[in-house]
């Protein structure tokens, strides 16, 4: 029962970290389903929190894809405490489904004093930044998509992340990172 609470808490923290707006919550057999809206690109995302301890395979990925189609969601996320099969990993990439592993933090990462605020730039902010500095995205410093903070906010390769930290001398210090595969 304790594992169930941990998985549900992980899903709620993920929604909070990514700034999603909760549209619908539904408890099914061994799945808690959240339909959320991504404020950055205004698309619907379907989150499945799988509560059974069995390995998550391609069957669950395909089931989520069908549910995504019926709910008009463009992306999906599966959160599970158990392991993912190789087929699930390969199939999820093709179907625009993100698999959240058991080592994903179940606490709000950005509450820590040493972790600065991270946010993904929308298309308009991205273009303004590139115009202002007259650069191409690849000329920015890089951050891997596997970085814990990048994973927490849902950054994908090609995105630009704005990092805002407090500075004792400058007040607020803003830096930008280009997300690469990794």
Describe the structure.
The chain is an alpha/beta fold. It folds into two domains: 2-100, RNA polymerase, Rpb5, N-terminal domain (Dna-directed Rna Polymerases I, Ii, And Iii 27 Kd Polypeptide, Chain: A, domain 1); 109-180, RPB5-like RNA polymerase subunit (Eukaryotic RPB6 RNA polymerase subunit, Alpha-Beta Complex), CATH 3.90.940. Helices cover 31% and strands 31% of the residues. It has helices at 2-18, 58-71, 86-94, 123-133, 148-153, and strands at 21-27, 31-37, 44-50, 75-80, 97-100, 117-120, 142-144, 160-167, 171-180. Strands 1-2-3-4-5 form a five-stranded mixed sheet, with helices on both faces. The protein has a four-stranded mixed sheet with strand order 6-8-9-7. Strand 1 and strand 2 (31-37) form a beta hairpin. The two termini are 34 Å apart.
Which sequence of strands runs across the widest sheet?
Answer: 1-2-3-4-5
- Total domain units: 2
Report how far apart the termini are: 34 Å
What would the principal axes of the Cα set say about the shape?
globular
Structural class: alpha/beta
Query: How many DSSP E strands?
Result: 9
Task: Report the β-strand fraction as a percent range.
Answer: 25-35%
Indicate the radius of gyration in whole angstroms. Answer: 17 Å
User: What order do the helices and strands follow?
Assistant: HEEEHEHEEHEHEE
CATH superfamily placement of the largest domain: RNA polymerase, Rpb5, N-terminal domain
Q: Strand count, sense and closure of the main sheet?
A: 5 strands, mixed
Oligomer type: single chain
Tally of contiguous helical segments: 5
Helix content range of the residues, please? 25-40%
Mean pLDDT: 91
Poorly predicted regions are none
CATH class of the largest domain: Alpha Beta
At the third CATH level, what is the topology name of the largest domain?
Dna-directed Rna Polymerases I, Ii, And Iii 27 Kd Polypeptide, Chain: A, domain 1
- CATH architecture level-2 label of the largest domain: 3-Layer(aba) Sandwich
């Amino acid at each position: 029962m304790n594992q169930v609470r941990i998985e549900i808490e992980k899903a709620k923290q993920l929604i909070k970290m990514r700034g999603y707006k909760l549209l619908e919550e539904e408890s099914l057999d061994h799945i808690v389903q959240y339909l959320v809206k991504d404020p950055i690109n205004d698309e619907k995302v379907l989150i499945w929190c799988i509560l059974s301890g069995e390995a998550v395979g391609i069957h669950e990925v395909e089931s989520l894809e069908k549910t995504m189609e019926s709910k008009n969601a463009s992306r999906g996320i599966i959160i599970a405490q158990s392991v993912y099969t190789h087929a699930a990993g390969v199939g999820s990439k093709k179907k625009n489904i993100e698999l959240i592993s058991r080592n994903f933090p179940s606490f709000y990462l950005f509450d820590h004093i040493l972790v600065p605020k991270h946010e993904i730039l929308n298309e308009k902010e991205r273009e303004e930044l590139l115009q202002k500095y007259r650069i191409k995205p690849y000329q920015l410093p890089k951050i891997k998509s596997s970085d814990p903070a990048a994973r927490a906010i849902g950054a994908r390769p090609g995105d630009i992340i704005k990092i805002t930290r407090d500075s004792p001398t400058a007040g607020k210090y803003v830096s930008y990172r280009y997300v690469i595969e990794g």
